[in-house]
Amino acid sequence: MMRSFFALLLLLLITPDTFTQTEVRKAEISKYFTNPVFDGADPWFFQKDGYYYYCFSEGSGISISRSEFITKRGIKKKVWEAPASGWNRSCIWAPELHYIDGRWYIYYAAGESGPPFIHQKTGVLQSATDDPFSSYTDKGMLCTGDYPNKQSDNVWAIDMTVFTYKKALYAVWSGWEKPALTDKTSQHLYIAEMENPFTIKGPRVKISSPTEKWETGGPLDLQEGPEILQKGNSLFIIYSCRESWTVDYRMGMLKLKDEGGLLLSPLNWEKSGPVFSGPFGTGHCSFVKSPDGSEEWIIYHSKKSAKEGWQRDVRAQQFVWNKKGYPDFGEAAAVGKRLKRPSGEYRIEKKMREKR
């Protein structure tokens, strides 16, 4: 009788909110996720020392978040605010965070005004220490024209990424052939060797133009968002083409044909595509491995609907390598489709909860 009395008392003390909180805690840990993972565009993920750093434009500045997970963003911090005047006071686009020789560098596009977006150039920031959340120094505009030493002859440039190949540092970006008075101007892919993380060493070289049927035919022929993907000595550039505000947005691929040859030779790049597409368009990606290193993942953005515009979100999807050594991205997964979380995420989250 006394035991029944205490059982009844315990039930009365447990409120509905208690049950709800318990159910939420259990539901928060799952082996699956669905796209999109969060709102945003031009997703740049950088993986280092067990963390994923997500770098993105926010208002008139640039923010970084850090997380142990691909599918869950961590607490963010704004690390740079655009100046009130100057060439880079407006239109902050597609920042990328890179770790080079003990410092962090952020490459970003900006302009003095827009629309029309005819002033976009590329700048670079350098961290004060090896902490990505430290203060950043503005190292200025990179020379992305035909004359590396003449910044006055700079040419429109966005979506720059940098990479090291056989001990040399290179930059790849999307640019115009020459300055124009309209932003309805074709975009091409350029490459140049770098003297250091904030100095272009040699003249730019155009390695690709929108010429294939699957990358032309809309209101504006363009190639943008080039990103590097390496497997051993095999080097690929995955880029976006067609119009980013339409459902035709998709990805193409360049492969370095001769791994011992020059990266600065247009003839040494082989084009194929489209290599990744989806119902609302796919573009501007980055690549990381799963937390345990066993899987390859592509992080990309897509429009939220078939309606034209720039309302986009960030999505994640595993990809594989085929027998020829080429990446196989498959088709973009539908929104809401249940996908298995990157290998290692569930285990890490479970251990984190057990320590609390």
What features would you highlight for this structure?
356 residues; mainly beta; Tachylectin-2, Chain A; five-stranded antiparallel β-sheet; 24 strands; 44% strand
- Tell me the span between the first and last alpha carbons: 37 Å
Strand content: 35-45%
Number of strands: 24
Main CATH class: Mainly Beta
What does this molecule look like?
The protein is mainly beta and 356 residues long. The protein has a single domain (2-355), classed as Tachylectin-2, Chain A (5 Propeller). Helix content is 10%, strand content 44%. It has 3 helices and 24 strands. Strands 2, 20, 21, 22 and 23 form a 5-stranded antiparallel sheet that branches. Strand 7 (90-100) and strand 8 form a beta hairpin. The longest helix is centred in the N-terminal third of the chain and has 13 residues, at 16-28. The radius of gyration is 23 Å and the shape is globular. The model is unreliable at 4-26 (pLDDT under 50).
Task: Show the helix and strand layout.
Layout: H1 2-13, H2 16-28, E1 32-34, E2 38-39, E3 44-48, E4 51-58, E5 61-67, E6 76-81, E7 90-100, E8 103-111, E9 121-127, E10 136-141, E11 157-165, E12 168-175, E13 188-196, E14 199-200, E15 205-208, E16 223-231, E17 234-241, E18 250-256, E19 269-276, E20 283-289, E21 296-303, E22 312-321, E23 327-328, E24 338-340, H3 345-355
Antiparallel strand pairs: 1-24, 2-22, 3-4, 4-5, 5-6, 7-8, 8-9, 9-10, 11-12, 12-13, 13-14, 13-15, 16-17, 17-18, 18-19, 20-21, 21-22, 22-23
